[in-house]
Automatic annotation (TrEMBL):
Keywords: Membrane, Transmembrane, Transmembrane helix
Pfam families to which the protein is assigned, alphabetical: DUF1707
TM region(s), chain numbering: 89-108
InterPro entries documented for this protein: DUF1707_SHOCT-like
Phylogenetic placement of the source organism: Bacteria, Bacillati, Actinomycetota, Actinomycetes, Pseudonocardiales
Residue intervals of the DUF1707 domain: 7-59
Protein name: DUF1707 domain-containing protein
Membrane as UniProt keyword: yes
Amino acid sequence: MNENPDVRIGDTEREQALQALGEHMGAGRLTVDEYGDRSARVAAAKTRAELTALFIDLPEPHPKFTASWATVAQPAVTKAPATWADRPLGQRLVAAVIPLLFVGAVLVGVTTGFWYLIALPLATAAVGRSLWGSDWERGRQGRRDGRRRLGERDQS
């Protein structure tokens, strides 16, 4: 079996395992106590490896695993690396203005004593982050595609 043994199992796999254990008990391969012990372990099993370990010493039937997310062929998503030219004009302007505001605030603070002006570039950076930060990092289109894959409605 080329399947990943660490993939989590569901109720379908547990039910198949219980049916298979019942067949083995009916064939005399398991005692009532062994069946009870293995049934309890089936109910507690979380991964394919835990479930498969219960059938190591038994012939067929064994539980059959459905295709996992990892084994289903996923389309390759290739995305070109982001560049400054890909960013919105407003974002590029704010990014260019923040260092100038900082230098200007320091100069005004040194010459006039108005040090509270240092808050101006910090506030501008915070506003820019709230406007463009999360969209730039995750990508607005990528979030929409993810919602469609999960069956959610596009809420843009």
